[in-house]
Structure formats: structure tokens, C-alpha cells
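> example.struct
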């Protein structure tokens, strides 16, 4: 995985759902030149405020070493990962360092063939966010829509990390906190 620190260009798909209406606004998805509808885009602040101290960009609050799974993970394999830990909410299916798909527990409800690839049932739509997005706005969106996990990607969909909303929904998991929890198991 690698990170980039370039500023995001303006979104050229302003007519697409979730993109900014004004060309002066930046697309929350990071302004993908070709496609931004599969990102959490055009987020508007909620009426409630984010917790104090929740400032900066998504990249400042993401887990930098999320668990990744191969693109050929089967439905049975995905179910086994979910069964092993209630903390797994979103499986990141990766090919090289690029996010290929995501799979959540509900995605597999109707999957009746255990040997099929789990990616067949997953989606990226609404499950990714650009590392440059403002964390306070993203937090409000995640709380409002009860989204607990978002894959953090760059413009080329390289996986940079995972944004993991805590159960209390008052902040985000940290690398140190996740490591400490793993060590207690």
C-alpha cells in the first residue's frame, strides 16, 4: 500500500448522484476524473456536531494496516472470517495494492454456493472514501447512515487504509487500539 499527498482535482462528473452541484466545490470522493459514483461523495454536514478534536482528513484517522483478503476468497471463506470475529464488518478484497471489491455480512445472505467467489456478491459503491475528505463531515455521514467501515483509497483505487467507526460512534479505531485488542485475544 502506498499513500499520496497530492490535492484532489475538481470532479468532472457534477451531474452524477452525490457529486457537488457547484464546480467550485470539491467532490468528497477526491474528484476521480472518470468515475466517482462508487465513492461516498457529496456529503453534507449533519445538524449535529462531530466530537471535539475530530479534525483533519480521513487519512489522519484511518487504520493504516487493515486486514486484506484475496480477490478469489470464496463465500465459505468469507463466512468463516465473519464467524471468527464480530469485529469484522467489511472484508477488503485486494488485487496487488488495489481495492477490487468489498463484502459485508448482508452481502452474503442470499449466497447459496459456498465455492463461488465472494466478490460476486460485494460492491464498492458507498464503501470507499478518499483519504483527503474532511473527517468531521465523513463522521457525521457515517453516524447518520450507520456506516461503520469505509475503505480509504486514492484516485487510482489503491487501498490506503480503513476508516473504522467505533461502536459508540464517537470516534475512530486506531492502529494502536486494534493491536492492543488483538493482543488480549
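> example.seq
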Amino acid at each position: 500500500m502506498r499513500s499520496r499527498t497530492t490535492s484532489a482535482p475538481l470532479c468532472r462528473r457534477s451531474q452524477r448522484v452525490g457529486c457537488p452541484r457547484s464546480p467550485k466545490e470539491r467532490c468528497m470522493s477526491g474528484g476521480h476524473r472518470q468515475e466517482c459514483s462508487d465513492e461516498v461523495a457529496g456529503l453534507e454536514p449533519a445538524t449535529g456536531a462531530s466530537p471535539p478534536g475530530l479534525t483533519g482528513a480521513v487519512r489522519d484517522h484511518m487504520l493504516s494496516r487493515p486486514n486484506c483478503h484475496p480477490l478469489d476468497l470464496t463465500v465459505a471463506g468469507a463466512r468463516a472470517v465473519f464467524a471468527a470475529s464480530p469485529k469484522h464488518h467489511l472484508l477488503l478484497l485486494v488485487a496487488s495494492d488495489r481495492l477490487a471489491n468489498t463484502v459485508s455480512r448482508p452481502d452474503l445472505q442470499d449466497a447459496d454456493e459456498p465455492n463461488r467467489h465472494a466478490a460476486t456478491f460485494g460492491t464498492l459503491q458507498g464503501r470507499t472514501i478518499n483519504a483527503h475528505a474532511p473527517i468531521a463531515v465523513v463522521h457525521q455521514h457515517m453516524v447518520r447512515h450507520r456506516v461503520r467501515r469505509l475503505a480509504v483509497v486514492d484516485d487510482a483505487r489503491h487501498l490506503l487504509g480503513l476508516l473504522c467507526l467505533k461502536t459508540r460512534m464517537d470516534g475512530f479505531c486506531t492502529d494502536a487500539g486494534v493491536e492492543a485488542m488483538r493482543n488480549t485475544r
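> remarks
Residues 1-41 have pLDDT under 50 and may be disordered.
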